[in-house]
Each structure stands twice: as structure tokens, then as C-alpha cells.
Design goal:
Helix content is 31%, strand content 28%. It has 13 helices and 23 strands. Strands 3, 7, 8, 9, 10, 11, 12, 13 and 16 form a nine-stranded mixed sheet that branches. The protein has a five-stranded mixed sheet with strand order 20-19-21-22-23, sandwiched between helices. The model has no long low-confidence stretch (mean pLDDT 95).
């Protein structure tokens, strides 16, 4: 895409309403614009990142054996009355009455609806297990929405739901999601640490928050230093025994503020890392909490009809955009990992009225596009300093700089955004580097 054509309304100054880094940079980079308090329009640059994150999440869910469906944003209130949550949920739920005086709601989550789909479709234990997921917009009417997409009222979520005949099956499903989350966040360029979370009235150990470390994180985190070095599993057999992987990742201490055991500070000494973190995912086993009141029953081999064992597994897709920026930025702007960058390369023409520069840039642009490399080509007549500042702000992984002085020597400049390393290299070599 040529910069002269792309819709990317960048800002030079920090907006006064933006309190955290990701909110400031997303506004300045022209990724989002506020429509109402806690509700944002995603402009082309931001939407490209959002779609790429969603695709990574989707691919890893599919590999784990999940099947994608799509549930509506609007839900009938009677389902929530069946589960007992309609009156308990509070003012965060946006309640609506349609023209026929039927009570509806804008879904903040989907346990009731997915359980209703299941109970009307599955009858026998032979059809289990099932792992279903969707990616959909949610709404929670936060009393004080803030921090941009990190705590908005409307947000994009991936929700998975597992259905099993017994607790042993529920553990296997839980472990699949545990491992899938490790792999997902690694592909997004993040180091996510699973930390034991509040499990509610069910109790047990099957509730984990996935936390990424960021200096501007919303909560304090404490973990054993070695957890940060654990390798994420490759070539996972999701039909095999995943318990050893889960056991390894949960064998060392890791806790957020509200679950922290202060005695561990003395016990672990300098092995304890104290930092700030951002929650980007949560997996949770809740047994028969919804299947019993909603009557999601299947026939078992021995015990007649039994309620299915369930779990839910969430990833904040839109929240991850802000989370990645919080974890990966510098004073100049965003630093995107290649897996989610809106474009891989920013091609900068330093002198657009120079015929040689224009020809070299046009040729590089065409060849990169033909090879499937996503390029943002700055073909504008802005000053060089303005172009460099904007490319640093939007954080593309590579900057390819073409100027008349370098071309006379047969070279262009390649800059890596993360780290800032620069290299003068021939156009042919730079193509091999970026395409390869």
C-alpha cells in the first residue's frame, strides 16, 4: 500500500485523554478513534493488526481440536434467568427490550447460549468430548472505561467451551487449552506466564490466568525466575498426554497480587521475580455449573443421564493489541512482532522527485508485493525526518530506506525496528533477506 493512498490519520502530539502507553500510541498511530466512552472504531492500520491476532488465535484453536462456530451478540434473557445469572450479573450487562417486549441483552459472555446449543443437539456420551469456540464482539457496561482497548466497554473475545462426560475428560480438555494458550502467545511474540487464579465455589486447581510482563501492567506479579526460561512445546500431539507439560509449567511459583503468598518472598529470595503484568487469557473449569440448571444432559454408559462437565477458555483479542504494545515499545513508538505487524516492511523514498530513487523504490515495491511481502511504501514528499518518525511510531519490523547518495554506491539501508540496527546492502541482497 502506498502511503499517499492509505487512510492513516497519525497524530504528532499525545492525546490528553490517553493515560497509558498503548492508548497513546494507538491514537497517535491512527489505529483507533473513540466513538463513545470505551467504544472504538478500528481504522485500517489497527484493523489489520486485530485480524492478524485473531488469525493466530484461530489457527492454534483449530490445531487443538476446537471447532469454530459463531454465536450472536444479542441473547434472550430467559436463558440467563435459567442459569440464575440474569439478576446477579449487575449493571455491567446491557439489558434491552425489543419491539415485542421481549427481554434481551448484549452478551458479555456466552456460557448460557453455548449450553443451550449443546443441550438441544447432543444426547449421548458417544458424541463427547466436544470443544467449540467463536470469536465475537462482547459488551460490558464498565462504570469507568479507561486505558483505551485495554478496558473498553465493547471488545473482541475468543471464547472456547469444552463438554466432557466426566472430570477426567474435563482435565484433558483443560490441558489442551493450557498448551494451546502457551503456543498462541508465543506466536504473538509474547512470554505469557500461567498463574493460578481464583477458582470460585468449585475449588480445585483448574483455573489459570495467562499474564504477560509489562512495566505498565495493571497488576503486580510474582514468579520463580526459572519460569521465564521455560520453552514452549513444539509439535504437540493433542491426543496424547499433555499433563507433563502442564505439570512443568505449574511446578514453580507464579501468582498475581490477589493470590500472592508473602512467605514465598523469603523462601525464594533472589529467585523471585517481582514485576507488573497484564492478563491476556483465562482458562477455567466450572464442572456442572451451567449444565445442571440448563439441563445439558447426556446418557452415560453406566449411570443413565448425567450433566456434562464444562469449562470455558477466553482470550481478549482486542485487548491483546494494547497488551502487545505495552510489552513492546520504546520512546519513538510501537515495536511490532512480525506475526502481527500491519505491514512487514516500511519502504521509504527519501527523495521522491529524484528519478533514480523513484525507479528503485517502485521496483523494490513491485518485487516485494509479488513475493507476498506486505509493504507500506512512503511515496509522499514529506521531509525525511517526518518519514522516519512516522515509521518508528507505527512500528513496522523493517524499514527499507532508499536515497540518492546510497544508490550512487549501489546500496540501500535496512533498519530493524527492534534494536535499531542498520545495514547498508545491495537492493538484490535486501530482497533476498526480506523475501527469504
Amino acid at each position: 500500500m502506498r502511503r499517499s493512498r492509505v487512510f492513516m490519520p497519525t497524530l504528532k502530539e499525545n492525546p490528553a485523554e490517553a493515560q497509558i502507553v498503548s492508548h497513546r500510541l494507538m491514537l497517535r498511530a491512527g489505529m483507533i478513534r473513540q466513538a463513545s466512552a470505551g467504544i472504538y472504531s478500528w481504522l485500517p492500520l489497527g484493523f489489520r493488526v486485530l485480524q492478524k491476532i485473531e488469525q493466530v488465535v484461530r489457527e492454534e484453536q483449530d490445531k487443538a481440536g476446537c471447532q469454530e462456530l459463531l454465536m450472536p451478540t444479542m441473547q434472550p434473557a430467559e436463558l440467563w434467568r435459567e442459569s440464575g445469572r440474569y439478576d446477579d450479573y449487575g449493571k455491567e450487562m446491557l439489558r434491552i427490550r425489543d419491539r415485542h417486549e421481549r427481554d434481551m441483552l448484549f452478551g458479555p459472555t456466552n456460557e448460557e447460549l453455548i449450553t443451550d446449543i449443546f443441550r438441544n443437539s447432543v444426547r449421548s456420551y458417544r458424541e463427547l468430548p466436544k470443544l467449540l469456540y467463536h470469536v465475537q464482539w462482547k459488551f460490558r457496561d464498565e462504570v469507568r472505561p479507561r486505558f483505551g482497548v485495554m478496558r473498553g466497554r465493547e471488545f473482541l473475545m475468543k471464547d472456547s467451551y469444552s463438554f466432557d462426560i466426566d472430570f477426567a475428560g474435563a482435565v484433558r480438555s483443560y490441558n489442551k487449552m493450557f498448551v494451546a494458550y502457551l503456543r498462541t502467545f508465543r506466536r504473538l511474540g509474547l512470554k505469557a506466564i500461567p498463574m493460578k487464579a481464583e477458582s470460585g465455589p468449585i475449588g480445585g486447581d483448574m483455573s489459570h490466568e495467562f499474564i504477560i510482563l509489562a512495566d505498565t501492567g495493571e497488576t503486580g506479579v510474582f514468579c520463580h525466575r526459572d519460569v521465564l526460561e521455560f520453552p514452549v512445546p513444539e509439535n504437540v500431539d493433542y491426543e496424547g498426554d499433555l499433563q507433563p507439560i502442564v505439570d512443568k509449567w505449574t511446578s514453580l511459583y507464579a501468582a498475581t497480587d490477589d493470590m500472592h503468598d508473602k512467605s514465598k518472598e523469603v523462601e525464594l529470595g533472589d529467585q523471585l521475580v517481582t514485576a507488573r503484568g497484564i492478563e491476556v487469557g483465562h482458562i477455567f473449569y466450572f464442572g456442572t455449573k451451567y449444565s445442571k440448571p440448563l439441563g445439558a444432559m447426556v446418557t452415560s454408559a453406566e449411570d443413565g443421564e448425567v450433566p456434562v462437565e464444562m469449562g470455558s477458555y477466553g482470550i481478549g483479542v482486542s485487548r491483546l493489541v494494547g497488551g502487545i504494545i505495552e510489552a513492546s515499545h520504546d520512546d519513538a513508538g510501537i515495536i511490532w512482532p512480525e506475526s502481527v505487524a500491519p505491514y512487514k516492511v516500511g519502504l521509504i523514498n527519501l527523495k521522491t522527485d529524484d528519478a533514480a530513487c523513484r525507479q528503485a523504490c517502485d521496483e523494490l515495491y513491485a518485487k516485494l508485493q509479488t513475493a507476498g511481502v506486505e509493504v507500506l511504501y512512503d511515496d509522499t514528499d514529506e521531509r525525511a525526518g517526518v518519514k522516519f518518525a512516522e515509521m518508528d511510531l507505527i512500528g513496522l519490523p523493517w524499514q527499507l530506506v532508499v536515497g540518492p547518495r546510497g544508490l550512487k554506491s549501489g546500496v540501500v539501508e535496512l533498519k530493524r525496528r527492534a534494536g535499531g540496527e542498520r545495514q547498508e546492502i545491495s537492493p538484490e541482497s535486501v530482497l533476498a533477506r526480506l523475501i527469504g
